[in-house]
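Reading group handout, session on sequence-to-structure problems. Before we discuss, look at one worked example. The prompt was deliberately terse, the way you'd type it at a terminal:

> structure EF-hand domain-containing protein

The input record follows.
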Amino acid sequence: MAIGHLHHHSVNKVGQSDGKREMTMDQFIEWLRGFDKDNDGRISQDELKEAVRATGGWFSTWKSKRGVKSADLNKDGFIDQNEITRLVEFARKQLGMRIVGC
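And the output record:
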């Protein structure tokens, strides 16, 4: 299942509140959607790597591999709509984000 397309505009800035990266789950999904370069509704390892880079993160290749491995339940190599919530813990630990309301 593809990541839903509510609004089709790129959101590459991470919301900041009190000096921390903070956003709702919907904002997180919309932010990730901005890295879905081939518009297939899924996030690949390369697309996740770009998301890591956008946060100023180091070791983007390593982190993106770990992110996909931890979230990809069906082992197809992509993060889809059913797996997106599994990226929340990755975003907290590896990207320093705070996802609220989930």
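Points for discussion. First: The two ends are 20 Å apart (CA to CA). Second: The beta strands are 16-17, 20-24, 43-44, 78-79, 97-100.
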